[in-house]
Amino acid sequence: MRVLIVEDEPYLAEAVRDGLRLEAIAADLALDGAQALELAAVNRYDVVVLDRDLPVVHGDEVARRLAGAGDGPRILMLTAADLLDDKASGFGLGADDYLTKPFDMRELVMRLRALGRRPAQARPPVIESDGVRLDVFRREVYRDGHYVALTRKQFSVLHVLIGAGGGVVSAEDLLEQAWDENADPFTNAVRVTVSTLRKRLGEPQLIQTVAGAGYRFGPS
């Protein structure tokens, strides 16, 4: 999953980002409400972790705009405003969850994963294609009934490729969907990850390189 952290205290924002990355959750940062809206307009996020008392554009306005956009990200308000009326107004603005400061990082991760299991559009928890069975929520992969041990990044790349339904996915799209915004667009991380993923899945190969276009999941 990919998360946007909107927090105007840089130290806290960076601590949350680093903690999420340790849990294999790609996380970007926005230090004010305007930056949050800009990033949400160009990137696809599963959840926005949103402080309320933000500079430039208040967090309440950010929540209102994101919720009003329709098929947008889930919103988890993470704020020091802990009164019942504060929570009621937060949910009224479109928040899907509400966590007050101070908080435990483990609880934040659990809440994010719970929100990730409630996508805007229904997705099957288990995807099967060409003998590969990918369990999204258990993060398990089997090929022809045999368990395949994958790293979190390999799992994310495989999920994107299978989800394309046989279509070609460019390296740029893989980089956008399986990495965060700090990924170097000129890196060879995609090529290396796809190469190691092929080896893990075994023969015959199921990830095809389409010259000049990207990668496609399926038999050659």
Question: How does the SSE layout of this entry go?
Answer:
Layout: E1 2-6, H1 10-22, E2 26-30, H2 33-42, E3 47-50, H3 59-68, E4 74-79, H4 84-92, E5 97-100, H5 105-116, E6 126-129, E7 132-135, E8 140-143, E9 146-148, H6 152-163, H7 171-178, H8 189-201, E10 207-210, E11 214-217
Helix pairs in contact: 2-3, 6-8
DNA-binding region: 124-219
Protein name: Two-component system response regulator VanR
Modified residues (4-aspartylphosphate): 51
Short note summarizing the structure:
The protein has helices spanning 10-22, 33-42, 59-68, 84-92, 105-116, 152-163, 171-178, 189-201, and strands at 2-6, 26-30, 47-50, 74-79, 97-100, 126-129, 132-135, 140-143, 146-148, 207-210, 214-217. It is α/β, with parallel strands linked by helices and 220 residues long.
Radius of gyration: 19 Å
Counting H and I runs of at least 4 residues, what is the number of helices?
A: 8
CATH class of the largest domain: Alpha Beta
Main sheet makeup: 5 strands, parallel
Shape: elongated
| CATH fold title of the largest domain | Rossmann fold
| Spatial order of the strands forming the largest sheet | 2-1-3-4-5
CATH architecture of the largest domain: 3-Layer(aba) Sandwich
Instruction: Give me the count of strands.
Output: 11
The overall average pLDDT, rounded, is: 88
Number of domains: 2
Fourth-level CATH superfamily of the largest domain? Response regulator
Low-confidence stretches: none
